[in-house]
Amino acid sequence: MELKLLNDKGQAASNVAAPDTIFGRDYNEALIHQVVVAYQANARSGNRKQKDREEVHHTTKKPWRQKGTGRARAGMSSSPLWRGGGRIFPNSPEENFSHKVNKKMYRAGVCSILSQLAREGRLSIIENLSVDAPKTKLLSQKLKDMGLDSVLVITDSLDENLLLASRNLPNVLICEPRHADPVSLVFYKKILITKLALAKIEEMLA
Question: How many whole angstroms from its chain centre is CA 16?
Fold first, then answer.
């Protein structure tokens, strides 16, 4: 598999050899969907709390006598059938939304995403990406010169100037190979990988 090596102007200068086991796999839509959904579900926190009929603040007095009123019998006003009553199956902070995905499946799903990005021309290699100062304007201009507006940059090590310069750009994310998640790979229009980061990705997904 040959990947394009871009220069500072965003033009293809040459090609870089990449293993077919990572960047030449078939597109597995079902596996990619499972990996993406599992990643989003595992990032979800149980921060909802509802009250059941024990926790709502109501009197336990019987609203009316059992027989003779013509109305349906009722025991207390905290019943889930009543307005303001407790929930039958309330949500709690201990709720678990996580999905189980095996390591082999996760790696195969990431490889399938990378392979499809390479086929679509959305994945490219660069020698290095850096800025002289932690200024958003410098990084924004550099990406504009390369013709990039929505980009995920995977670098071998986080440069402080590059990280600080990218924080105010909503469509730019800088991360290391171990933090390149499936959702970000699918979300951004263009993926840039430095040469050293490419070697780490090959080592991780081999």
Answer: 28
Both 200 and 170 in one domain: the answer is: yes
What is the per-residue pLDDT across 33-85, written as a single tens digit (0 to 9) for each? 999 999 999 998 888 899 999 999 999 999 999 999 999 999 999 999 999 99
Claim to verify: residue 28 and residue 119 sit in the same structural domain: yes
Domain count, the chain: 2
Q: What is the distance in angstroms between the CA of the first residue and the CA of the last residue of the chain?
A: 15
Question: Which residues constitute the domain of residue 152?
Answer: 2-44+100-205
All residues at 6 or more sequence positions from 35 whose CB lies less than 8 Å from its CB, including other chains: 101, 105, 106, 109, 110, 182
- SS3 assignment, position 61: coil
Give CA torsion, residues 194, 30, 1, 197, to 10 deg.
20
Q: Is the domain of 134 the same as that of 182? A: yes
Same domain, 106 and 15: yes
Q: What is the pTM of this model?
A: 0.82
Q: Are residues 128 and 162 in the same domain?
A: yes
Q: What strands, in cross-sheet order, belong to the sheet with 123-126?
A: 12-17, 2-6, 123-126, 190-194, 151-154, 172-175
Q: E strand or H helix at 108, and its extent? A: helix 103-120
- Final residue of a structural domain among 96, 114, 137: 96
Distance CA 119, CA 121 (A): 5
At 136, is the secondary structure helix, strand, or coil? helix
Q: Which of 21, 191, 48 shows the shortest CA–CA distance to 107?
A: 21
